[in-house]
Amino acid sequence: MVLSSFLITSRETLEAALVVGVVLAYLTKTDNHQYKKTVYYGIFWGILLSILSAIVFTSLAGGFEGMAEEIFEGFTMLFAAVLLTTMILWMMKQRNITKNIQDKVALHINKADYNKTYAYGLFALIVIAVLREGVETVIFFGALNYSSGISFIGATLGILAAIIIGYLFFIGSGKINLKKFFTISSILLILISAGLVAHGIHELQEAALVPVLIENIWDTNNILDENGILGSFLKGLFGYNGNPSLLEVLSYAAYLIGISYIYHRIGRSQEKAVSK
Fold first, then answer.
1. Is the dihedral of CA 110, 111, 114, 119 positive or negative?
2. Highest mean pLDDT: which of 53-62, 140-149, 217-226?
3. Which positions ≥6 away from 23 have C-beta within 8 Å?
4. Counting Cβ atoms within 10 Å, is residue 140 exposed (0-12), middle (13-18) or buried (19+)?
5. pTM
6. What is the pLDDT of residues 125-152, one digit of tens each?
7. CB atoms within 10 A of CB 211
């Protein structure tokens, strides 16, 4: 629970921190300090809207019972797995993320020089960047809570780690290797996502929306209880299930095979692009 919560918040917070850091660094470099207040307002409203989304999600989730609750939890876990997957693949493709963000900021600033109302474009860029990560975090935590639980300590440490990494990266520290960080965390998040897929299938089986096929193809709970200390850790990180159904195992394996193929294909295309 601690590690999975840490990974989620560290990745999500770092993505938002990178956007904000690039924008602030660009404003400083181009001597456009007057727009920094716009960035700070954007951060505030992004966080506020993220909190509101968490309240709405919690209220919505608490209104289901029985089969409706199982269906909601199942689809929430599957949707969270989709978001995690797109986040991982998107970050792999962002070799020029700094330049792309700087180009967007330059466009908004150039327009704002002619008409101050265009400064809202910069404001919107920050709000969307923060809100997107906030909403995704809410959904991820909702899914993790259904499957294995969440850790406040792990989530807090993840946020702090992301802020420190983002800060060190943008003050020019050569000790922070973002590529390695994203690679390692992506691999772990892929395993978490695969677990969410399997758990989502399990909930939909409980709701009788998908067939069970074979209910328990093995049972290792007498050796490694999924509700024990080590079992709970593996359940939160790798989606461990002591007595999974055949469809859960097949969905877990299919996800890992599919994402691994796409992952390596993107890596090879990037290597070819660099070689050229």
1. negative
2. 217-226
3. 39, 101, 105, 122, 125, 126
4. buried
5. 0.74
6. 889 889 888 888 888 888 877 776 778 8
7. 11
**Using the 8-state DSSP alphabet, how is residue 117 labeled?**
G
Contact 199, 145 (CB under 8 A): no
Between CA 146 and CA 197 the distance in angstroms is 12
* Angle formed by the axes of helices 178-206 and 152-170, nearest 10°: 150
pLDDT tens profile 112-122: 665 566 567 77
Q: Which amino acid is at 4?
A: S
Rounded CA-CA distance 203/188 in Å is 23
- Decide if pLDDT at 223 tops 70: yes
Q: In residues, how long is the chain?
A: 276
Q: What number of H helices and E strands is found in the chain?
A: 9, 0
The token pair at 227 is 């509700």
